Amino acid sequence: AQSVTQPDIHITVSEGASLELRCNYSYGATPYLFWYVQSPGQGLQLLLKYFSGDTLVQGIKGFEAEFKRSQSSFNLRKPSVHWSDAAEYFCAVGVRSGGYQKVTFGTGTKLQVIP
Amino acid sequence: KAGVTQTPRYLIKTRGQQVTLSCSPISGHRSVSWYQQTPGQGLQFLFEYFSETQRNKGNFPGRFSGRQFSNSRSEMNVSTLELGDSALYLCASSEGGRGNTEAFFGQGTRLTVV
Known about the structure:
Chain A has strands spanning about 5, 10-15, 20, 25, 30-40, 45-50, 55-60, 65-70, 75-80, 85-95, 100-105, 110-115.
């Protein structure tokens, strides 16, 4: 079965600083990969996704992620963080099972942005 | 296109009662998944429905059940509520077919059991 690990429960960065959120997955083949963001009390919003092709994926709100097969990683990055980026971020892995896609979510990383 | 709609947004119930939550997916989406989110356990998968059939199930007791109607709208029911059932319940819809698709989430229903 597939699994997702987000090793950082909580990260604090200064506004304007760069950001990297880590995500590692465990699966025997190449999975489909997603990053979602959740503001307090809200649902999850898709930031970006990787299905195949170019391993550097651009998303909304200035985020990007890079799929590294050799490291089983799909880290999320942003060159300059804004205060409005404070939220919880979830990495997710989708695999094909029984002809359809099954998605597993990581435990999330809470991002705090300080002025 | 309208997004995923969950009703109600907030609920307060007493221990031992039952509750029904509703989810209307994006038009054309046939898959609806339910998740429970709590501070201690994070995001936990409850079940997925596709074309009125339960296709996938998480590790929750039988008190948690669901169904999907022919218009893809889904309901989730929790019977004999416990204090630990207090959580944000999220619904996600997707096309659900054989292609690669992402899930779109509703804003959730905040259930408080007292």
